[in-house]
C-alpha cells in the first residue's frame, strides 16, 4: 500500500469518526449546560426525578420484554422449521421478514387501527389491555427483520437436522427438542436479536403515539417540544441504552459453550 | 428367532426409486452391516428403521411389532450418527443422561445408568467436559453411550467411524463390537468400508442400486461373491473372461490354456464367454505350491505393498494379480519373466450377473 493510500485511509477514518462523534459531543456538552456558567448534571437529575420519565421508561421496558418473548416464541420455531423441513421456503420467509423495513410504521399502525378499532370484529383498541397487546405485536413486527436474521444466523452454526434426529432417537418430542436442544444452542443469537428488539422498542415513537400509549418514545418527543436541556440529556440516555445493548450482544456471544462455528 | 424384520421395503423420492424390494430378517443380538457404495440406499434403509423416512411400501417390525405409524421418538431405537451429533450445550454426563431424562427416570437411576455407560466407554473422567473439549473418537464413544443409555431395542450406527482417522477407526470398531457383544443388542451398522464390515459383522448385506445383492457371513461374502458387483466391491478380485470349451465337463479356456472348473457351468454352450473370479491370495508361484490348476503367464508388474508383494501377470487377454507374503528372502519375479500360478480349481468362481 502506498503512503498516499494509507494517508487517504486514515483521513477517511478520521472524517468518519468526527462526523459521528462531533454532534454527539455537542449534544453531550449542551446537556451539561443546564446551570448557568458551569457544567452540571442538573438536566439528567431533573429527567431522572421526573415521575413521567420513570413511568414511560418502565412501560417501554415491560413492552420490550413482552415483545422479545413474543418474538422468540414466533421466530425460533419458524426459523427452526424452515431450516429443518422447508428449506425451499427460506427465500420467501426472508422476504416476508424484510417487509417491516420497507413498510413505514405509520402504515402498519393505521392498518391496525382500521382492523382492530372498536367497531371491528376484534376491537382491541377498545381496551387498555387490547391496545397494549396490539402495540406489543406491532413492535414484534418492527423487530422481525433483526430477530429473524439473528436466529437464522445462529441456526446456521449448528447441525439442526442431525441434532433434531439425535434427540428424536432418544425419545424427545418437538417441545423438548426446541426448548432443550435448539434454543440453548442459539441463545447467543437469540439474545442478540433480543437486545436489538429492546433498543428498537425503547426509542419507538410512531406506534406508541398513534395508539396513545404512555411509552418512552412519545415522552421523548413531548419533552423535546417543551424543555431546553432535558431533551439532550434524554438523548444521551437513549444512546447509552442502545450502546449498552450492543455491548451486551458482544458479551453474550462469548458465552456460547460450543466450538467456533465451522465454515 | 427374527427380531427385526424388513419386508418388501421400498422407498422413492419423487420419480427416483432409492430402495426397491428390500428384505431382511435380523436375529436378536445379531450385528448386521449394510455395505455398499454411496447412493446405494443403505442409509435410507437405516433411516426407515429409525423412522426418519417413511417407506413407500413394505413393513418394518421390531419384536413382532409393526413400526409403521410410530414416530422416531416412539420406537426406542438408538442411533449413532457420522457427525457425532452430541448436544453442544450439554456436557458428557448430560448428553448421556438426555434419553433417560426424557423417559422420566428418577435421578438416582439416571446417575447410576450414566456412570455405568461412561464406564463402558472408559470415559468416566470426562463426565464434566463439553463436546468441543473432546477428540473425535471420544465424541463418538459418548454418542454410543448416549444411544445405549435408554436400553434401546435396536442400535443403528450410521457410518460412525467415517470422520475418524485410520488408527482410531480400528480401535473404535473393535470397541463397538465388544460393547455390542457384551450387551447383546441387535445392531445395524452402515458403512462403505469393506474392511470394517468384514471385521466386525455377524452378517453383511451388500447393497447395490437400492437392493441387497447378497446377504451372508463375512467369509461367505468374501469367498463366494454371488454377483459381479459383490465380487468387485468386496476385496480385491481378478475378473477373468474365459471361453467355454465343454459345458458338460465344465471345461473352459483362459487365453489358450484349458482349465476344468469344479462348479457346474450351468446353461451355457461351447464358445460362450463366462466371467470368473480369483482372489489374489488364492494362488502361488512358489516352487512346490499346492493346487490342481495352473496358469502360465508373463509378469507385467510387481509392486511392494508392505506385508505383501502384488504381482500382475498376463494370461491371454486377461491380467491376473496374485500376492506373495513378504519375507526377507523373497525374490519377486522380474517383469517379462514367465511364471506359473498354481491354485485350486474351486477357488475359481463363476460370476453370474
Helix run count of chain A: 12
Number of domains of chain B: 2
- Main sheet: strands, sense, barrel of chain B: 6 strands, mixed
What is the tally of helical segments of chain B? 8
Q: What is CATH's topology name of the largest domain in chain A?
A: MetI-like fold
Give me the CATH fold name of the largest domain in chain B.
Answer: Rossmann fold
What is the name of the CATH class of the largest domain in chain B? Alpha Beta
Mind explaining what this structure looks like?
The complex is a heterodimer of chains A (263) and B (353). By secondary structure, chain A is mainly α. Chain A has helices at 3-31, 42-49, 51-84, 90-102, 105-115, 128-156, 160-169, 174-185, 187-203, 206-210, 216-226, 230-252. In chain A, helix 3 packs antiparallel against helix 9. The model of chain A is unreliable at 259-263 (pLDDT under 50). Chain B folds into two domains: 2-233, P-loop containing nucleotide triphosphate hydrolases (Rossmann fold, 3-Layer(aba) Sandwich), CATH 3.40.50.300; 238-351, OB fold (Dihydrolipoamide Acetyltransferase, E2P). In chain B, the strands form four sheets. Chain B has a six-stranded mixed sheet with strand order 6-7-8-3-9-10, sandwiched between helices. The longest helix of chain B is centred in the middle third of the chain and has 18 residues, at 166-183. Chain B starts with a strand and ends with a strand. The interface between A and B is medium-sized, with 22 and 31 residues. Chain B: Keywords: ATP-binding, Nucleotide-binding, Transport.
Provide key terms for this protein.
heterodimer, A: 263 residues, mainly alpha, 12 helices, globular, disordered C terminus, B: 353 residues, alpha+beta, Rossmann fold, OB fold (Dihydrolipoamide Acetyltransferase, E2P), 2 domains, 6-stranded mixed sheet, 8 helices, 19 strands, P-loop_NTPase (chain B), Transp-assoc_OB_typ2 (chain B), ABC transporter ATP-binding protein (chain B), transport (chain B), ATP-binding (chain B)
Amino acid at each position: 500500500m502506498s503512503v498516499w493510500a494509507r494517508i487517504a485511509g486514515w483521513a477517511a477514518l478520521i472524517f468518519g469518526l468526527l462526523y459521528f462523534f462531533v454532534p454527539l459531543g455537542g449534544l453531550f456538552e449542551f446537556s451539561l449546560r443546564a446551570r448557568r456558567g458551569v457544567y452540571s448534571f442538573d438536566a439528567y437529575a431533573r429527567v431522572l426525578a421526573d415521575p413521567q420519565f420513570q413511568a414511560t421508561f418502565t412501560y417501554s421496558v415491560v413492552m420490550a420484554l413482552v415483545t422479545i418473548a413474543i418474538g422468540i416464541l414466533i421466530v425460533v420455531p419458524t426459523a427452526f422449521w424452515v431450516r429443518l423441513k422447508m428449506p425451499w421456503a427460506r427465500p420467501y420467509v426472508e422476504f416476508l421478514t424484510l417487509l417491516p423495513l420497507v413498510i413505514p410504521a405509520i402504515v402498519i399502525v393505521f392498518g391496525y387501527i382500521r382492523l382492530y378499532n372498536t367497531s371491528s370484529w376484534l376491537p382491541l383498541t377498545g381496551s387498555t389491555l387490547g391496545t397494549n397487546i396490539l402495540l406489543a405485536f406491532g413492535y414484534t413486527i418492527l423487530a422481525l427483520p433483526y430477530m429473524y436474521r439473528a436466529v437464522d444466523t445462529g441456526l446456521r452454526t449448528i447441525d439442526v437436522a442431525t441434532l433434531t434426529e439425535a434427540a428424536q432417537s432418544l425419545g424427545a418430542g418437538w417441545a423438548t427438542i426446541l426448548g432443550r436442544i435448539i434454543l440453548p444452542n442459539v441463545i447467543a443469537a437469540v439474545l442478540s436479536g433480543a437486545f436489538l428488539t429492546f433498543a428498537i422498542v425503547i426509542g419507538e415513537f410512531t406506534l406508541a403515539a398513534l395508539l396513545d400509549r404512555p411509552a418512552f418514545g412519545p415522552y421523548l418527543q413531548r419533552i423535546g417540544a417543551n424543555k431546553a436541556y432535558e431533551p439532550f440529556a434524554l438523548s444521551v440516555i437513549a444512546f447509552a441504552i442502545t450502546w449498552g445493548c450492543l455491548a451486551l450482544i458482544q458479551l453474550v456471544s462469548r458465552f456460547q459453550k460450543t466450538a467456533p462455528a465451522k465454515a | 428367532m427374527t427380531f427385526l424384520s424388513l419386508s418388501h421395503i421400498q422407498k422413492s423420492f419423487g420419480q427416483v426409486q432409492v430402495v426397491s424390494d428390500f428384505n431382511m430378517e435380523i436375529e436378536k443380538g445379531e450385528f448386521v452391516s449394510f455395505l455398499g457404495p454411496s447412493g446405494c440406499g443403505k442409509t435410507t434403509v437405516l433411516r426407515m428403521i429409525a423412522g426418519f423416512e417413511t417407506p413407500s411400501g413394505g413393513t418394518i417390525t421390531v419384536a413382532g411389532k409393526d413400526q409403521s405409524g410410530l414416530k422416531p421418538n416412539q420406537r426406542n431405537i438408538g442411533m449413532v450418527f457420522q457427525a457425532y451429533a452430541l448436544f453442544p450445550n450439554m456436557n458428557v454426563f448430560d448428553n448421556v443422561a438426555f434419553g433417560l431424562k426424557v423417559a422420566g427416570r428418577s435421578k438416582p437411576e439416571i446417575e447410576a445408568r450414566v456412570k455405568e455407560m461412561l464406564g463402558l466407554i472408559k470415559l468416566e473422567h470426562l463426565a464434566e467436559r463439553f463436546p468441543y473439549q473432546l477428540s473425535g473418537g471420544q465424541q463418538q464413544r459418548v454418542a454410543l453411550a448416549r444411544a445405549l443409555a435408554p436400553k434401546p431395542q435396536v442400535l443403528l450406527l450410521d457410518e460412525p467411524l467415517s470422520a475418524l482417522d485410520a488408527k482410531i477407526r480400528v480401535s473404535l470398531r473393535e470397541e463397538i463390537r465388544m460393547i455390542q457383544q457384551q450387551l447383546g443388542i441387535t445392531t445395524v451398522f452402515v458403512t462403505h468400508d469393506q474392511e470394517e464390515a468384514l471385521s466386525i459383522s455377524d452378517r453383511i448385506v451388500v447393497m447395490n442400486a437400492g437392493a441387497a445383492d447378497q446377504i451372508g457371513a463375512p467369509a461367505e461374502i468374501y469367498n463366494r461373491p454371488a454377483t459381479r458387483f459383490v465380487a468387485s466391491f468386496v476385496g480385491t478380485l481378478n475378473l477373468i473372461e474365459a471361453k467355454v470349451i465343454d459345458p458338460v465337463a465344465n471345461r473352459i479356456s483362459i487365453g489358450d490354456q484349458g482349465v476344468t472348473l469344479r462348479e457346474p457351468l450351468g446353461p451355457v454352450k461351447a464358445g460362450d464367454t463366462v466371467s470368473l473370479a480369483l482372489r489374489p491370495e488364492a494362488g502361488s508361484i512358489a516352487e512346490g505350491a499346492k493346487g490342481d490348476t495352473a496358469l502360465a503367464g508373463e509378469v507385467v508388474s510387481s509392486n511392494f505393498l508392505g506385508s505383501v508383494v502384488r504381482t500382475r501377470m498376463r494370461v491371454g487377454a486377461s491380467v491376473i494379480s496374485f500376492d506373495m507374503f513378504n519375507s526377507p528372502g523373497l525374490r519377486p519375479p522380474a517383469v517379462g519373466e514367465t511364471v506359473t500360478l498354481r491354485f485350486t480349481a474351486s477357488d475359481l468362481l463363476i460370476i453370474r450377473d
